[in-house]
Amino acid sequence: MKTEDAMRVPFLDLTIQYKTLKKEMDRKILDVVESQKFILGQEVTELEEKLASYTKTRFAIGVSSGSDALIVSLMSLGIGKGDAVVTTPFTFFATVGAIVRVGAKVVFCDIDETTYNMDPDKLEEAIHDGTKKCPDSKVKAIIPIHLYGQCADMDRISASAAKYGLSVVEDAAQAIGAAYPSSSGTKNACGMGDMGILSFFPSKNLGGYGDGGMILTDKEDLAEKAKILRVHGAQNKYFHDLIGGNFRLDAIQAAVLQVKLAHLDDWTRKRQKNAIFYDKLLKDSGLIARGIVKVPQAVYKQSGIPNYHVYNQYVVRAEKRDELQRFLGSKGIGSAVYYPLSLHLQNCFSSLGYKERDFPETEKASGEVLALPIFPELSVDQQEYVVSCMEEFYKGT
């Protein structure tokens, strides 16, 4: 292992990735520049075709961001004023922001303590709660989040959706390539709901050189509507059938993502390998046995699915989380908290009427979770250093 003075572990280092792809990437970007075709076009079409195939869905629609993918999906489903949507309060702001921006009401459902995803045992209660909390609105959809890279329990969520006649939009912004052992066969993230969305924010497993997103669906009518909505609601230029917006994916981003997509499965395997090594290091450290640290659980591992968890983040639960994070920072180790304040307690959502202790699993997770570096190029020495510093912090605890 390198000495501490020479060791630095960034939370994410995309420069290494770029150096390995530089020649191919620079050529691809230059091809777009030389073509002077920057909006939609062939690069976007080719990426859409490849991602539809990758996710095993029929249609893919490239859009301007993962956030906009959520908005366009809800618009495509006709969700707006007078409707309500169930999701969890333990997610990035964009999930709930999209619901509010289309004019719908938000109904929260607590998470499962192991996966951090929507708890199916609490979903029907949330649906009924939505009827009580939003008497002027009707629950129309569910947005389950495949958080940190692992699918939510979609069989049970889909069963509840079918029971109440609700649409399902999968938020797979952190879970491209993740698989789920459905009762009808192995399914991929984005292939189990009415619509699914991906984000290509640079820090994602498949990240662009800026913002970008994708909508996936098996339903042709929804795909066609999303395509129209992303260009201001015009199927033919200057003739507007719907009120849409500027939700287009740029050709340069599509070109970048095509280069990266060819490497995604290899990067996923490296993330999984890093996660397994963290598990071993933390077990050997004794921190798990002492109950100080809990490692993430890949709940579908026993099904034999290779991509049961794609580890967009490797998230531990840790005692004295904030103090630990500061200590790791002092040692040159990057980390992040996803998410420090659950959405039902955010000031901007105070009008929803939720309060502390309404969602105990979410609030507990917000105080304990810490994401450690997990990027594919992370070295063994760096991982050993991270865990040794964690041991140092908890020494004598």
CATH secondary-structure class of the largest domain? Alpha Beta
Quickly count the domains. Answer: 2
| CATH architectural type of the largest domain | 3-Layer(aba) Sandwich
**Spatial gap, N to C terminus:** 25 Å
- Structural class estimated from helices and strands: alpha/beta
Strand order of the largest sheet: 1-9-8-5-4-2-3
Total number of strands: 14
Structural write-up:
- This protein has 397 residues and is of the alpha/beta class.
- 40% of the residues lie in helices and 15% in strands.
- A 7-stranded mixed beta sheet has the order 1-9-8-5-4-2-3, with helices on both faces. Strands 12-13-14 form a 3-stranded antiparallel beta sheet. The protein has a two-stranded antiparallel ribbon with strand order 6-7.
- β2 (83-87), α4 and β3 form a beta-alpha-beta unit.
- α1 crosses α8 (251-261).
Topology:
Elements: H1 14-35, H2 42-55, E1 59-63, H3 66-76, E2 83-87, H4 93-101, E3 105-108, H5 120-133, E4 138-142, H6 154-164, E5 167-171, E6 179-182, E7 185-188, E8 195-199, E9 213-217, H7 220-229, E10 234-236, E11 239-240, H8 251-261, H9 264-285, E12 293-294, E13 314-318, H10 321-330, H11 360-368, E14 369-372, H12 380-394
Parallel strand pairs: 2-3, 2-4, 4-5, 5-8
Antiparallel strand pairs: 1-9, 6-7, 8-9, 10-11, 12-13, 13-14
What descriptors fit this protein?
Aspartate Aminotransferase, domain 1; Aspartate Aminotransferase, domain 2; alpha/beta; globular; 397 residues; 7-stranded mixed sheet; 3-stranded antiparallel sheet; 2 domains
